[in-house]
Model the fold of this input.
Amino acid sequence: MVTNAAGDPFEALGDPNRRDILRLLSEGDKAVSQIAAALPISRPAVSRHLRLLKEAGLVAEEARGTSRIYHLREEGLLDRSLIYATDINEVVLQRAKAGIFPLERMQEYTDNYIRAGGERSFSEYYVARYDGARFARELADGVVFAQHNLVSDAAFNEFHVITCRNVLIYFAQPLQARVHRLFYDSLATFGVLALGQKETIRFSPHEREFEELDADERLFKRVR
Done:
């Protein structure tokens, strides 16, 4: 769960055209003409959206010959965000807090980092020891590790992003409805909910309060 202190990056992400631009840039650096060719909007409109994304700290540009090339920026959110990492299992929380993960997962994490626009070497963020990798302590400075029970606990903050993947599939329908109510109560208007591949907001009591952002990634935005 993430709550944002400044708000600008999340406001910039509220426009579907800007989200489409970010998806294109996640595939690689592009010029305005390349972005406009892939989207049903004009080049001037693309330039306006890119300007807003730059102001929000999500996109950067550089000169390459006579062209201006745009790419994703990795900075701009971490220092302005507070992340709540919650689980019902205290052992799992302590393991996450230690920041030690299997070394064989690092290639997958590196690929994800690059796809998300990472500009540095991902290995700078962790130290490999034996068969494990310990992430830098400062990465957890803005993270609160806390025990929370989806079944019995109430909402405890207002969030801009909630990620809860591959949990609801183990719940019966009445319990799913209760958790969806918890998500709804916890999300700010225009906040984003990320569910697992076999999970959906459809057929829940709050289906009409959400808009689907990405069917493949199971991303939903609270709209009312």
